[in-house]
Amino acid sequence: MLAKTRGPVTDLTPRAPVRAAPRPRDGRSSKHVQIRCFTVGRFQVNTYLITDPSTGAAAIVDTGETRELVERLATLEPKPDIRMILLTHGHTDHAGGLTYLQEVYDVPTYLPRAELPLFERLPEQGTWFGAPQLNRPCGRIDHLIDDGAQIQLGALTLRFVSTPGHTPGQGCYVEGGDIIVGDTLFAGSVGRTDFPLSDPALARKSLRRLFELPGELRVHSGHGPVTTLAKELAQNPFLGFLRMERRTA
Fold it and tell me: What is the mean pLDDT of residues 199-226?
C-alpha cells in the first residue's frame, strides 16, 4: 500500500519512498501484450488492463479499493473486452474494489491459493490500520491458482509466479518481456514485511527466486513507475543482500 494518504491512516507504504505513478499513465505495448496502467484510490495503487493485441481479449489486474477503476474503464473507447480479473494479493488497496468490478463485469476472478486467508479478512483489514472505512466485502473468487499456473488470455499465456512474503500468497503474472509483480518489488524498494501475515524470511527467498528471471523483464509494480529486474538488481538499496550473495557465490 502507498504512503500518500489522507487522514490518520497508518503509513502502509513500501520500505522506501516510491514516486507515485503519473495519473493517468499509458502502459507499455509490445507484440506480445498491451499493458495500460490506471493509478487509483487513496493509496495510489497501480491497477492494470492487459490486452492480447491479436484478439482484443483483456484482463484486469488488481482493483484498487474504490469504484474509481470501474469509472476509468467506463470511459475507454473502444470498450475493452474484459475476460477475467487477476489479483496479485489480498490487501484492501489491491483487492478491496473487487465487488465493484464484479457488479459490471461477470467474468472469472483468479486469486493465489495461499492468499485466501488474507483475502477473506478484507472485511476487517481497514480496522487493522485504524481505518475501518476501508473494510471491504470479499467478492467472488472463481479460481485459486498455484505457482506455475498458466492462464489463457486470448492467444496469450500468462504464467503465475508465486512470490510470498509481503503476504502469504503474493504473486506475479509473466507474459513475454513483462511481469506484473504486485507489491513484491518496486523501483528502488521492496514490499514491506511488517504487516499481519507477512514473513520477512519468505520475502527474501521470493526475491532471490524473482531475480533468477531474465534481467530485461519490464517490472510493473503495485506502486510507482515501471522498472526492470536488471536495474533493480544493480541499484535497489534493499537488494544489497542479493548483490553480496552473487559476489561471493
Answer: 98
Handedness of CA 202, 208, 209, 210 (dihedral sign): positive
DSSP character for 176? T
Pairing label, strands 178-182, 171-175: antiparallel
Position 26 pLDDT exceeds 70:
no
Q: Considering its fold, how many domains does the chain have in total?
A: 1
Domain span holding position 76: 34-248
Asked whether the predicted pLDDT for residue 17 surpasses 80, the reply is: no
DSSP per-residue letters across 205-236: HHHHHHTTS-TTPEEEESSS--EEHHHHHHH-
Contact of 155 with 183, CB cutoff 8 Å: no
Within a domain: residue 70?
yes
Output the domain CATH number for residue 138: 3.60.15.10
Is 27 a domain residue?
no
Distance between CA 98 and CA 138 in Å, rounded? 7
Q: How far is CA 210 from CA 40, 47, 52, 215, 225, in A?
A: 26, 20, 24, 10, 18
pTM for the predicted model, two decimal places: 0.89
Nine-digit cell string for 118: 488474507
Q: Is residue 63 part of a domain?
A: yes
Three-state helix/strand/coil letters over 42-58: CCCEEEEEEECCCCCEE
Q: Which of 1-15, 25-39, 104-118, 129-143 has the lowest mean pLDDT?
A: 1-15
Q: Is residue 169 part of a domain?
A: yes
